[in-house]
Amino acid sequence: MVQALKLNKKYLWHFSGRASRSEFWWAYLVWTVGTSLVVLVAYLVWIIAMFVVFSRTENSQDTSTFFVVGAVLFLLLGVALTILSIIFTLSVCWRRLQDAGFPGALWFLNLVGLGIVPFIMCMLDSSPDGLRYDKPEDVNRP
Questions:
Q1: 62 pLDDT exceeds 70?
Q2: Transmembrane segments in this chain: where (predicted)?
């Protein structure tokens, strides 16, 4: 696990070469669990804060303002996590698709609502056809 995460960090901006299934899945798992925890903590903090504000205020203007501010902050958190998700998973998914023998550009199916297709392709075994995506400096890379 640690080796796979180190490789993911080291080759974060490399789109040539290939990524093993373990490198892809460990990075994907850590990212998914990490973002889920961030969202869960933010949601719990917002709910607790809403209970505190609603129980202490008689003014509906204050409560509606608090609700709108919280909703906007959640929207911004969602946008930030989406952008970070694209950054952190794009290259490893691209290389994983190449390792399975598919063009890495199939990752863009995620942007048109067909994200399940590259996700399933990333589950496939490594293919010798993936060698065509290696540059000379990528041949003996772990």
A1: no
A2: 25-54, 66-92, 104-124
Q: Phi, psi (5° rounding) for residue 134?
A: -85, 135
Question: Which tens digits make up the pLDDT trace of 87-123?
Answer: 888 889 998 999 899 999 999 998 898 989 999 999 9
Asked if 130 contacts 100 with a C-beta cutoff of 8 angstroms, the reply is yes
The secondary structure element, H or E, covering residue 128 is none
Q: How far is CA 101 from each of CA 22, 75, 81, 104, rounded to the nearest angstrom?
A: 16, 37, 29, 9
* Domains in the chain: boundaries: 21-133
Residues 6+ apart with CB under 8 A from 93: 24, 104, 107, 118, 122
Select from 81, 104, 82, 77 the least CA-distant residue to 93: 104
pLDDT digits (tens, 9 = 90+) for 11-25: 788 888 888 888 889
Cα 9 versus chain centre, distance: 13
